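Sharing a chain and its predicted structure for anyone who wants a worked example. Both blocks are below, sequence first, tokens second.
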Amino acid sequence: MALPQYSKSQLALRNGQDKPEIWVAYQGKIYDVSRSRLWRNGKHYEHWAGQDLTSELSDAPHNENVFDKFEVVGELV
């Protein structure tokens, strides 16, 4: 089954402020991080929800496997 597709502007609304969902994108997939205590209020250290974090992961103290525990809710187009 194909995942729903979302634009960057649709992703931006899931920033923990405008809608109840807190989403981030990584390598074209959108993850729901709403349940993570580390993403409360849509901010995780210097990173903001509602954005594509692909280019920012190299600065993180973890690798891409951190996304394995979150549900993929769509694709970024």
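Comments welcome. Strands lie at 5-6, 23-26, 29-32, 43-44, 47-48, 71-76.
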